[in-house]
Design goal:
By secondary structure, this protein is an alpha+beta fold. 61% of the residues lie in helices and 10% in strands. It starts with a helix and ends in a 7-residue tail after the last strand.
Length: 538
């Protein structure tokens, strides 16, 4: 009989554990469905295509050299991408897979962070649901770049920090959690430079704990306190050492590809930060009305939660999330005033983890009751609706360079392609083998394909060189193709091609890798198209 009672109690305990964990399992399934079901639906855009075209090489050493000379991000993601490419290749599924896995893995991290901040299951569910559905997190979970990995490593570092502080506050050993914080924080630094600002906020909290301990306000004392101090200083020193070791790399990279940030008005960038969080990276076409609809339950929920007054533990949890988020956003903003302007909204993606944790603490707070829970659910549903809308609406997706490449693939083999700067790497990827036409060079072709997007420059339909005429116009989900042909091969200079593009932005000129190229200006005069002499080139 005692055995039967024990078995029954064990069964009840297992059932209760399953009941406690099923919301997390359901949210992870939802997160995986949002990320994996459409992982290859959109084509690579410039940054993604740049990696397999220009960064990844057969050897890891050559890949790391390319990271130094062509990128402005630490090397961890590229090492993972290199290993991934050796096994799975360089297709969209293969290169996006690490980001998708990181995106799903962030959901249980958010759950654990919410639980640590308040000790309430409601906070854990809210944090996990918001991370699972948020369109910004979903977007970068489907991008072959380092952003989502930085989100995961920051979430892991934040969780380790919370558990270390919790152990210290309870008078328990905190060394293993501080060691885990040092490792996860270092991985975050090796993934994206902007994680340094979030880590500064976390380190600031640890230093504050040491100050309180010195003043006798902390739980640890005696030998336990000394061990905690040593472990804290060791963790901070380890992260600092990794950060210092990355300085030469950051200097050598010199902000490759970051020039677009300075050309974007600071006020517009600041406005884009909440817009990215509310409607995703591509949500601008939805308009400010949709942004307001998504923001409304967040604003109402935060105001209502604060009005009902947070419990002491909720207040402490909210302050921790606020400190980390403020460090991650305000420090780079202050640095703009000192000439270090790298405040691109996408660089702040990882800072949205403490922002999400803050919302999850305040909106469904205990005293907010069912109203707070309903508002948190409404926020998650709004995020989910936008994430689904991105899957259904080409206007909210990455430019369809893959579709445009299919259209271009039926053209003449003796051709040249002009495109916007952001189209060069995708076209090189999907139409390989292509290569840039050198400056001051010329090429002999029968076809000139001009690609871009609206707004078009005046005279876009006018032939780019004498002897060519417009044969075809195509629109591929907003990407435009103007195909010009000539009855005979004609030699056209790179300067002529660069001066006539359909989109008024930085142009790129691409030719098939096998095309003979004339060095220097054409014999008949630079900038004028000429029939090829006797059909031959030199």
């Amino acid at each position: 009989m005692s055995t039967a009672v024990s078995l029954r109690r064990a069964g009840i305990g297992t059932e209760r554990r399953l009941i406690a964990w099923w919301p997390l399992a359901a949210l992870m399934i939802l997160a995986a469905a949002l990320r994996f079901s459409t992982l290859t639906q959109q084509s690579f855009w410039y940054d993604e295509a740049f990696t397999p075209v220009h960064v990844l090489h057969a050897s890891l050493a050559a890949t790391l050299r390319s990271v130094v000379h062509t990128e402005n991000t630490p090397p961890l993601w590229y090492v993972i991408a290199w290993a991934d490419a050796r096994v799975l290749g360089t297709g969209e599924l293969a290169l996006r897979l690490p980001s998708a896995l990181a995106g799903v893995a962030t959901v249980p991290m958010a759950w654990a962070i919410g639980s640590e901040l308040t000790g309430r299951r409601t906070t854990a569910i809210a944090a996990a649901a918001l991370v699972a559905c948020n369109p910004l997190f979903v977007w970068y979970s489907q991008e072959a770049r380092a952003y989502e990995l930085s989100v995961l490593t920051v979430a892991l570092a934040m969780l380790c920090l919370l558990r270390a502080r919790g152990a210290a506050a309870a008078g328990e050993p905190s060394g293993r959690w501080l060691a885990a914080f040092a490792v996860s924080g270092s991985l975050a630094l090796l993934t994206h430079y902007f994680t340094a600002f979030l880590l500064l906020g976390m380190v600031g909290l640890l230093v504050w704990d040491l100050v309180r301990e010195r003043s006798g306000q902390a739980a640890l004392a005696g030998s336990a306190g000394r061990r905690h101090r040593r472990a804290t200083l060791s963790a901070v020193g380890f992260i600092a050492a990794v950060g210092i070791a990355l300085v030469p790399l950051a200097v050598a990279q010199g902000g490759h590809g970051a020039q677009w940030i300075g050309r974007w008005a600071l006020a517009s960038r600041l406005a884009a930060i909440p817009q990215y969080y509310l409607t995703g990276y591509s949500g601008a076409p939805l308009g400010h009305g949709i942004e307001l609809l998504v923001a409304l339950p967040i604003i109402v929920g935060v105001v209502f939660g604060l009005w009902r007054v947070l419990l002491p533990r909720e207040e402490r949890g909210a302050m921790v999330a606020l400190v980390i988020a403020a460090a991650g956003i305000l420090i780079p903003f202050v640095l703009v005033g000192f000439g270090a302007d790298y405040l691109g909204p996408r660089n702040l993606v990882a800072a949205m983890i403490p922002i999400t944790a803050l919302i999850a603490v305040v909106v469904p707070s205990q005293r907010a009751g069912r109203v707070g829970i309903a508002l948190a659910a409404l926020i998650a549903l709004a995020f989910l609706a936008i994430s689904v809308d991105v899957d259904l609406s080409p206007r909210l997706q990455r430019g369809n360079w893959r579709g445009l490449a299919r259209t271009l693939s039926g053209g003449s083999s003796d051709r040249v392609i002009t495109t916007v700067h952001l189209g060069s790497a995708p076209l090189e990827y999907y139409l390989a083998p292509l290569r840039p036409l050198p400056h001051d060079a010329s090429v002999t072709v029968r076809e000139i394909d001009e690609t871009g997007y609206s707004p078009l420059r005046p005279g876009a339909a006018r032939p780019p060189a004498p002897g060519f005429h417009l044969r075809e116009r195509r629109n591929v989900d907003g990407l435009l193709l103007y195909r010009f042909i000539s009855s005979v091969p004609r030699t056209v200079s790179e300067a002529t091609l660069r001066s006539h593009v359909i989109t008024p932005t930085q142009p790129e000129v691409l030719v098939p890798a096998h095309s003979p190229v004339l060095a220097g200006p054409t014999r008949a005069g630079a900038g004028r198209a000429q029939p090829a002499p006797s059909g031959k080139t030199t």
